[in-house]
Amino acid sequence: MTINSRSATEFETAIRDLGAKSVHIGMVDPEGEFRDKLVSADKAIKLARDGYPFCEVLYFWDIAESTYRDGAFVDRPATLFADTVRAYPFAEDTALCLADFSGEFGRRSPRNVCLEQLARASDRGFDVLSAFEFEFFVFDETPETLKAKNYRDLTHFAQGNRTYSLQTSALYGDLLEGLEETMSVMGVKLDAIHTELGPGCFEAPLTYAKGIKAADDAFLFKNFARSYFARNELTVSFMSKLSPALSGQSGHLHLSLRDKAGNPVFADADAPGGLSATARHFIGGLLTLMPELLAMCSSTVNAYKRLVPGAWAPTSANWGVQNRTAAVRVINDSRDATRLEFRVPSADTNPYLALAMFIGAGLYGIDNAIEPPPHSAENFYASAPAPDAVFPRDLWDAAQRLKRSEKAREIFGDDFVDSFVESREVEFSHYQKQVSEWEIRRYLGVV
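Above: the chain's sequence. Below: its structure in token form.
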């Protein structure tokens, strides 16, 4: 494996500038988990120079770490990224960095797929600015109490919470400020933090960033939020849907394009809705490909429990200007901040895949000058969608649509599509074998 000497030098400089004596290397896994190894700073610098061998099993086991392929599980070459070096928030004199598989094996990596889409945008003269916003529930539980309760009848944190609640913020301000400080240490900036609908429910919109940093920030936010709350003997959940009685948890994604001079590409004050032709074509591509690429941004079984009528989430590909019921919402409050909000992803989304899907589909629309249907201010939750705009109803159907998609293979590559679809099929096969409490209560003694 050939290592870029400049990158290795930049890596060492970043580590030395932080005064780090040790480094947490976070291997980016396909489920969006930070797979951690703690090494000395000198060893991290050596690995950045010589390469980082890591076991391929990350791509041959499921989220529960049960392997679905037999094999020797050899080490594959991986790279430490100099531009991801940051201070580690829970210990002094310590840094963190991200790593990922490289070469042929790395073609299946969500982060690498995202990097490829960013490069495609750059080749067309665009810089991508984006930001995620995550909703999440906090529970007054630990791993031990979760298991003792069999994950049922959990105690919510801040049970009297209301949406945009001053009282919750006043009571638990120190906890929320601590979360913000933890993220700030890593250079992950929160645009805001506020309470949301439901007991112990919060929302944290991240500040926008350029390129891969936006997805890296989202990846770090979710992983280190789990650690932060655990250190405070609390549990945070980014599941899409925890209960029929609770709102779904979104992971909305905002995106804009700028040209290389820094000018906003999506804005045109003289056009309807203030949108440029480039913006319309970007939307056209996203709407066209959204149903067949859905598994990329909705990759868990649980995500599809949110994408149903009456759950405050889209169920088909549509768009509107300032329309919060749309799958794609145009925000055009000002020219410089004109952007698209992709409202389909849940909080459990893999940020690299959601962003890759957003960019890849949008560029497809630009390349082919795809005009979207007229935007609408209607309540899309209550309207009848066009048949070709309707989303797959579960993870299996979404995975099969992705597997058959020629456009997905053209944009993201066969290696990624085949590997990702296989992992989604495995995930759904585990789900099919389960019998839910609802089924037992509904059918036992009746059928």
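The first helix runs from residue 5 to 18.
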